[in-house]
Task: inverse folding
């Protein structure tokens, strides 16, 4: 077990190093940060002095080593735009992203599971077919398009829900702000979480439907029915329970990607989270924010994968065979 | 506390609630963010525009951009090199401290210090002499008629507050921690900043102690940056925002058709133009080898005459542009009317090309931003198509501003043969255009750093120097006209147009749209 974990951790560290290298080299090609930091009339001498102070004139390997050693100490430098430590900026933005991700995961589960069950149990019904076609839309339309569509329907035309922002937020403790406790905060959550969660919802629905169809064909369900157990009991106690295992695995993995890919949704809805900050940073060549975001995202995935690996190892004895 | 005081407290609360209900709040959105609050950190229109609601300069500009007294009640030029400013008495900063000559002297030092992005606001060799608490002299090395032209955005800070909070050093772009002044503001202006989260939201509140009579009727202003064009427009259409800017030209009709909103359009000061490499002996991006066709005035004129500016105005800009014959907005130069564009004439252009030795045309690479100016990439595409008609093949390279400016400016070694750029003179004066765009430069950019094409005309150089120290406005304008005429005659640049401003506004809001694209809350009333 310990050997397995150590090996995994080593692999994870290599992955992080590669991501850091990629992030670092990639951002050399985004453009020149200096132009975004000063006004157009700033003299060339001042621009050059600024470049020197920021260390942009150092050889690339020197810059990379500095970047890595700082990042290892959780120091991601200072944002060029905001002139504040990147870690502090992220800390302020994390609650918004996490709340949005949580709400959209909840939406995906609460809507996706019943739809999947229904479509699995009533294969031929027209409603199931409708669900399936609607879910195709959810998979094939780009996120920003869905977002703008929702805005124009629910904000501009019907004027029911806000088109941007988080609404009123409440401060909890020194670093967490929440929109869950105010009416405007909850209203503001609806459109972005639907936008962000639509894809996951579709995925969950299709997964459950397929699993349901599979399970219903198995012998123990047939026996249960033959014994005269009521449909409700068979469907929910026996069938559903057995479909949920893969769903939980997928949902867990998807949560990571919801958090990481909230970028577009946050931009469309001007949701003040990390994704929005990342895209603003790309436009302004704010390299410290960009690289920190990429590293953070990579870390999230590496961590989730690590946990999943360990869980499988604990659950499935076959993995242990032949391993020291 | 007995029962009676409870009643009084409740009554007071009720009164407070009553007036709160009538409080006017203006909510507005802009595409970019307001980052540091230090008024000397970044020389950029939106930042200075925002901070101008909180801070004030010795002068300010009215709705027509005319210079007005602000913190200085009046000024006089005692000698050509000595300006005397009489300061307004009884002005208080938001923290309650008095505004005096000390604050002016302090601000002059600070704005010229290292790390400031506004060092050019006050000439480096100018000296400040405090005559008394409310009189300040500026002593210059040479006459300078436009000393105060940029002072509407040179905001005066409180010496006491800045010193007490350890914020004397300007938070520069390379600083790792922002100082107090970058996160808090203390000006004399009509609005105080009560909360500020960069990139998320900034809240302003009316300053009851403002020295001027308030013409606005706002109590609170909330600013939210909204980067996505579609979301910004939707926020206005849905009534969540009272004002948003800019709005894309293609959405103007939609905003006007919607009940309760109008699009406010008007000319901006920025001039969009084309520049050409006239310095290198061989163009970097062209099939002409061994010589540089752009050094030939006939080729430049051929390019000029091949461009159908009316078509660009109608098709690309949807009538939201003013074709221009000179490199400065007509608002900013009294003699602008004397200039006329070379007429659109592809046949004449072809003849000019043939005369210059390119009867079959040639190819040239063109650089263009795609996220900086209104429809910038579309303009370049139109230009490329028009030049194709005179057999000039344009290879268009359109890219985001972050990459574009890194390529074509000094830091990229002026790596371009043909490019599109926009320029607004920060001082709202022609001298700025001449000194930044039209003087000779060397390879490192000494001289006119933004003369990317690198043309060099000594006559323009000497005129620029003369204009700088000429105190007589009429004579000065003559000299400016002469310089612009040389540029026009030689087609050193191809001016295209002044792009338009487009703001989306709710019906119940009245405001002033200034041509410098600054949004001032003091001109806003909400009905």
Result:
């Amino acid at each position: 077990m310990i050997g397995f974990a150590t090996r995994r951790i080593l692999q994870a560290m290599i992955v992080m190093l590669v991501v850091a290298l990629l992030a670092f080299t990639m951002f050399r090609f985004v453009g020149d940060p200096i132009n975004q930091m000063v006004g157009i009339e700033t003299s060339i001498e001042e621009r050059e002095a600024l470049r020197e102070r920021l260390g942009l004139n150092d050889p690339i390997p020197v810059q990379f080593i500095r970047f890595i050693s700082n990042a290892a100490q959780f120091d991601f430098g200072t944002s060029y735009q905001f002139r504040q430590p990147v870690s502090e900026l992220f800390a302020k933005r994390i609650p918004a992203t996490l709340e949005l991700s949580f709400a959209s995961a909840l939406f995906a589960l609460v809507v996706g599971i019943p739809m999947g069950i229904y479509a699995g149990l009533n294969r031929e019904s027209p409603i199931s077919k409708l669900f399936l076609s609607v879910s195709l839309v959810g998979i094939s339309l780009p996120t920003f398009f869905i977002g703008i569509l929702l805005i124009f329907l629910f904000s501009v035309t019907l004027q029911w829900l806000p088109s941007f922002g988080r609404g009123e937020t409440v401060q909890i403790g020194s670093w967490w702000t929440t929109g869950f406790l105010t009416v405007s905060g909850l209203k503001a959550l609806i459109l972005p979480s639907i936008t962000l969660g639509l894809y996951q919802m579709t995925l969950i629905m299709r997964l459950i439907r397929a699993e349901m169809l599979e399970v219903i064909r198995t012998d123990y369900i047939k026996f249960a029915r033959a014994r005269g157990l009521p449909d409700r009991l068979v469907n929910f106690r026996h069938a559903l329970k057995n479909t949920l295992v893969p769903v939980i695995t997928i949902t867990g993995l998807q949560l990571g990607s919801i958090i990481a890919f909230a970028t577009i949704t946050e931009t469309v809805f001007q949701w003040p989270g990390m994704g929005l900050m990342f895209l603003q940073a790309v436009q302004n060549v704010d390299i410290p924010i960009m690289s920190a975001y990429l590293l953070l995202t990579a870390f999230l995935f590496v961590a989730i994968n690590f946990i999943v690996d360990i869980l499988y190892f604990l659950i499935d004895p076959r993995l242990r065979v032949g391993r020291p | 506390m007995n029962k009676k005081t409870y009643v009084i407290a409740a009554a007071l609360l009720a009164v407070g609630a009553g007036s709160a209900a009538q409080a006017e709040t203006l909510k507005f959105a802009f595409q970019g963010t307001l980052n540091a609050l230090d008024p000397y950190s970044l020389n950029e229109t939106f930042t200075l525009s925002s901070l101008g609601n909180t801070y004030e300069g010795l002068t300010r500009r009215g709705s027509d951009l005319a210079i007005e007294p602000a913190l200085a009640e009046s000024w006089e030029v005692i000698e050509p090199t000595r300006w005397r400013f009489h300061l307004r008495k009884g002005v208080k900063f938001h923290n309650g401290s008095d505004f005096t000559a000390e604050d002016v002297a302090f601000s002059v030092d600070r704005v010229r210090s290292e790390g400031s992005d506004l060092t050019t606001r006050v000439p480096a060799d100018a000296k400040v002499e405090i005559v008394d608490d409310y009189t300040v002299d500026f002593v210059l090395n040479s006459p300078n008629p436009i000393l105060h032209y940029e002072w509407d955005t040179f905001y005066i800070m409180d010496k006491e507050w800045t010193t007490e909070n350890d914020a004397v050093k300007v938070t520069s772009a390379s600083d790792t921690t922002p100082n107090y002044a970058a996160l808090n503001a203390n000006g004399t202006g009509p609005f105080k900043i009560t909360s500020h989260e960069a990139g998320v939201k900034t809240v302003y509140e009316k300053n009851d102690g403002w020295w001027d009579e308030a013409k606005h009727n706002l109590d609170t202003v909330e600013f939210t940056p909204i980067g996505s064009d579609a979301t910004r427009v939707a926020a206005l259409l849905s009534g969540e925002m009272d004002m948003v800017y800019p709005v894309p030209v293609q959405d103007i009709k939609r905003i006007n058709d919607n009940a309760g909103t109008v699009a406010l359009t008007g000319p901006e000061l920025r001039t969009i133009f084309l520049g050409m490499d006239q310095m290198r002996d061989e163009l970097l991006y062209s099939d002409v080898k061994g010589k540089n066709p752009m050094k030939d005035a006939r080729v430049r004129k051929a390019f000029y005459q091949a461009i159908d500016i009316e078509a660009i105005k109608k098709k690309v800009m949807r009538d939201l542009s003013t074709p221009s014959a000179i490199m400065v907005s007509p608002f900013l130069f009294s003699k602008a009317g004397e200039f006329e564009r070379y007429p659109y004439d592809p046949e004449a252009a072809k003849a000019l090309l043939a005369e210059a030795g390119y009867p079959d045309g040639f190819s040239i690479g063109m650089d263009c931003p795609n996220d900086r100016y209104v429809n910038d990439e579309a303009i370049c595409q139109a230009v490329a198509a028009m030049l194709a008609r005179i057999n000039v093949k344009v290879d268009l390279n359109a890219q985001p501003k972050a990459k574009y400016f890194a390529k074509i400016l000094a830091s990229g070694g002026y790596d371009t043969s043909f490019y599109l750029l926009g320029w607004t003179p920060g001082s709202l004066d022609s001298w700025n255009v001449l000194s930044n765009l039209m003087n000779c430069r060397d390879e490192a950019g000494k001289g006119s750093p933004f003369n990317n094409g690198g043309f060099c005309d000594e006559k323009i150089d000497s005129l620029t120097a003369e204009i700088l120290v000429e105190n007589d406005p009429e004579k000065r304008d003559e000299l400016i006209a002469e310089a612009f005429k040389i540029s026009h005659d030689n087609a050193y640049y191809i001016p295209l147009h002044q792009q338009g401003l487009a703001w989306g506004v709710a019906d119940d809001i009245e405001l002033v749209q200034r041509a410098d694209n600054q949004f001032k809350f003091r001109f806003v009333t909400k009905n």
In short: Chain B touches chain A through 59 residues (CB under 8 Å).
